Design the sequence.
């Protein structure tokens, strides 16, 4: 279930230009129905800061200059080393003066500060340095363990994100309503869980539209925008651009719990894999800002929830929904 991602070298990441795009971080995309234009993307601003998704074609020195910082200070502000800077990392940066004043983006601004280009980028990791981790659960199959999971989250006073398929919402509307009622965020995971790379543009949008209708009907929420997760994590530049045109930014994951891969895993395996990520000598540093993939329909995943949350808090990390881990 893990998609292959290309992480260029530190030297390549200091290169130039970006990719093509459509939806910003600042909440649900603006516009009418899901199939219509989502309106102009924009960067959110909070206390003089904004958030951008890094792409290796960007110029890091140019981004730093535009934000009034040296490259070293920008890395330090984001608790990053240059070797850790990878595609999909969300960076919290000082908002340039033109953005704070509501002015037009100057032609000299780097590609990473072009909202239309930046908005298509898939998120791999949230903002570091705030002691937050996003626990995300994909719901598209069986509902096994879902009620136990919700009970554990309530007992631990923890909020998470669910990526739900439309078919799951149609089969289990009461569960999807309980996801939202529990204070968790609910986003789009397609309608029928296909590989979108095999679909033409209209079928991709159709899947997102059908899923949105089913999920919002069950959950009582207004929209599943602005986030979605591609089934299997499979996407390409065209899929991401089409989804962005419909108002969605893709949320990948930093760490796969492997609860949906191969044979069912016991709760201890899931807990240990997340709290002690492979090949990471400093788990707390690695998990700061991380997005974790798990699944509804796995009873052992549900049983892992409470001890996992307590273990994360023991490391100084608080579980939050995706919205919070990408917000400036």
Sequence:
């Amino acid at each position: 279930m893990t998609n292959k991602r290309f992480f260029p070298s530190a030297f390549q990441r200091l290169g130039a230009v970006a990719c093509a795009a459509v939806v910003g971080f600042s909440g649900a995309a603006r516009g009418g129905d899901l199939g219509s234009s989502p309106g102009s993307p924009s960067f959110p601003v909070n206390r003089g800061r904004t958030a951008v998704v890094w792409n290796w074609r960007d110029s890091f020195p140019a981004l730093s200059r535009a934000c009034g910082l040296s490259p070293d200070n920008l890395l330090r502000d984001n608790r990053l080393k240059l070797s850790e800077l990878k595609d999909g990392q969300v960076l919290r940066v000082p908002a340039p003066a033109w953005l704070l004043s509501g002015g037009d983006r100057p032609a000299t601004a780097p590609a990473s500060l072009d909202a239309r280009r930046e908005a298509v980028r898939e998120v791999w990791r949230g903002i570091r340095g705030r002691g937050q981790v996003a626990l995300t659960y994909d719901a598209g199959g069986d509902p096994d363990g879902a009620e136990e999971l919700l009970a554990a989250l309530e007992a631990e006073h923890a909020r998470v994100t669910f990526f739900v398929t439309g078919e799951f919402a149609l089969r289990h509307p009461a569960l999807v309503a309980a996801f939202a009622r529990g204070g968790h965020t609910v986003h789009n995971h397609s309608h029928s869980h296909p590989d979108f790379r095999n679909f033409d543009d209209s079928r991709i949008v159709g899947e997102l539209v059908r899923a949105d209708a089913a999920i919002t009907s069950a959950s009582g929420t207004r929209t599943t925008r602005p986030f979605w997760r591609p089934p299997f994590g499979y996407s390409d530049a065209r899929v991401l651009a089409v989804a962005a045109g419909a108002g969605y930014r893709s949320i990948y994951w930093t760490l796969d719990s492997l609860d949906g891969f191969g044979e069912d895993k016991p709760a201890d395996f899931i807990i240990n894999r997340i709290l002690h990520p492979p090949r990471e000598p400093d788990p707390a540093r690695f998990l700061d800002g991380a997005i974790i993939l798990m699944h509804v329909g796995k009873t052992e995943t549900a049983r892992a929830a409470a001890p996992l949350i307590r273990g994360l808090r023991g490391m100084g990390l608080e579980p939050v929904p995706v919205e919070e881990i990408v917000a400036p």
Q: What stands out?
A: Residues 1-23, 27-37 have pLDDT under 50 and may be disordered. The CA atoms of residues 134 and 320 lie 5 Å apart. Strands lie at 49-53, 90-94, 132-139, 161-164, 185-188, 227-228, 249-250, 255-256, 291-295, 318-319.
